[in-house]
Amino acid sequence: MAERDPIPGGGQGAASWAGQQERSNRATLRLMAWIAVHLGRRTARLLLHPISLYFLLLSPAARRNSRRYLRRALGREPGWRDRYRHLHAFASVVLDRIYLARGGLADLSVQVRGGELVYDTLARSRGAFMIGAHLGSFEALHAVGKGEQLAVAMVMYPDNARMIQGVLHAVAPDLKLEIIAIGRPGSTLAIRDWLEGGGLVGMLGDRLPPAGSSSSSGAGGRSDARVLPFLGTPAVFGTGPLRLAQMLRRPLLFMVGLYRGGDRYEVRFEELADFSAPQPDAAQREQQLEQVLQAYVARLEALCREAPYNWFNFHDFWGEDAPA
């Protein structure tokens, strides 16, 4: 929630999320799905308190990594209230994921900023990429896109896609959540075809591919790893999502659905880059990627400071548990 090939500044932790965290996320999502469907949102939210307390007391890895992150994001030593609030925000977003999947956007208060940018981008380009992070709720973003009749597909690793689709379809059989699994033959062609149809392709850029996966080299893989300062400490990010947008020559928007407490969400869209005009040579393309990656990390860092309890990477992101 390590890898044989450490990269300074968090390489081991940055790519080790797929095991422990995804298993715990699957169990948490199933539990919250049952509560959401059978007890209703008002009762379910009351149960978030003991659930959050349970993980605070009995999940040492989540507690340790939450503390490390919050210390950097808050600029001070986090107390138990800060760590509890972090876990409670995560549990709240997981719960609302179920309602959003079942078409419950009307039960939530969602403010959208930058929606006109999406329409302007699609008006001048055939399809576009959106990049976000494990920050807030992607489901809120997807629900907004569905409400605006926008075609949105999410690019995911196969194991994540199966887990999310399996649980959400169990509680929302009519859900049409478009997911393109990467690391498979034809993945890039599927993404290109979706874009050619005028669709939006969403990606998350704050995790490297799982070690040993078929997508762990090349675009989005270990060879694309870069070490950049993040919240005052070097951390590893990948250029893979950016490289894909560059290769397919599409605009790139930054997306986020911040959880603001209670039933409130704030969805934002911002322009990050426009890869429509190709750079003439390889060196310039690499320089462009580096600049866009730095802009992405800077935007993510600013949001982590603005809404510190919204970042849901509870694994060893900076690789501090890695052996020397």
**Strands ordered across the widest β-sheet:** 1-9-8-2-5-3-4
Mean pLDDT: 84
| Beta-strand share of residues | 15-25%
Count of discrete alpha- or pi-helical segments spanning 4 or more residues? 11
Radius of gyration: 19 Å
What share of the residues lie within helices? 40-55%
Distance between the termini: 20 Å
| Helix and strand element order | HHHHHEHEHEHEHEEEHEEH
How would you sum up this structure, described in words?
The chain has 324 residues and is an alpha/beta fold. It has one domain. It is 48% helix and 17% strand. The protein has 11 helices and 9 strands. A 7-stranded mixed β-sheet has the order 1-9-8-2-5-3-4, sandwiched between helices. It has a two-stranded antiparallel sheet with strand order 6-7. Strand 8 (251-259) and strand 9 (264-274) form a beta hairpin. Helix 4 (60-74) packs across helix 5. The chain is globular. It starts with 10 loop residues before the first helix and ends in an 18-residue tail after the last helix. Residues 1-12, 17-23 and 214-222 have low confidence and may be disordered.
